[in-house]
Amino acid sequence: MDEALRHAAAALAGGEFPVGCVLVRGERIVAAGARRGSRAAGGGELGHAELLALQGLPGGEETSAPLRAFVTLEPCLMCFAALLLHGTSEIVFAFEDVMGGAARIDRSRLAPLYRERPLRVQGGLRRTESLRLLQAFYRDPAHAYWRGSLLAAHILSQPG
């Protein structure tokens, strides 16, 4: 999660929504991503850290070791599904996304493609560090991404 937090901090330093993701096989980081496109009007929603990390996975690599994802914000439904489709066996996130998070979804009600593989989900790892980055983002009036949303209100209401 340290590396995911570094990517989130780099996103924040670049004026982006502070989310970072690292993908790990065994003990080795195989890909990473940081949020991009959140500064644009309408907030380009394809620049999520998880999607960028998945796009960075090396082709043809040995895939016998399970893929694990460490993300600083609970993955949204789009990213959650993409992680599942890439065979992710574990998703660990720092801060809960009360507006769009999919980690608590009842997978038994989804189509078979999204429920056939076992998945472990853990939230709250390094929550405080992620919260501080998210609060810094929303406390800066220059950042408009999802300002005034349920997520922004939740982030700003947390003791930090």
Could you name the key traits of this structure?
single chain; 160 residues; alpha/beta; five-stranded mixed β-sheet; 5 helices; 5 strands; 31% helix; globular
Helices, by number, come to 5
Give the % helix. 25-40%
Mean pLDDT: 94
Shape: globular
Overview of the molecule:
This protein is α/β, with parallel strands linked by helices. 31% of the residues lie in helices and 20% in strands. The chain has helices at residues 2-13, 49-55, 77-85, 127-139, 150-157; strands at residues 20-25, 28-34, 67-73, 88-95, 120-123. It has a five-stranded mixed beta sheet. α1 packs parallel to α4 (127-139). It is globular, with a radius of gyration of 15 Å. The model has no long low-confidence stretch (mean pLDDT 94).
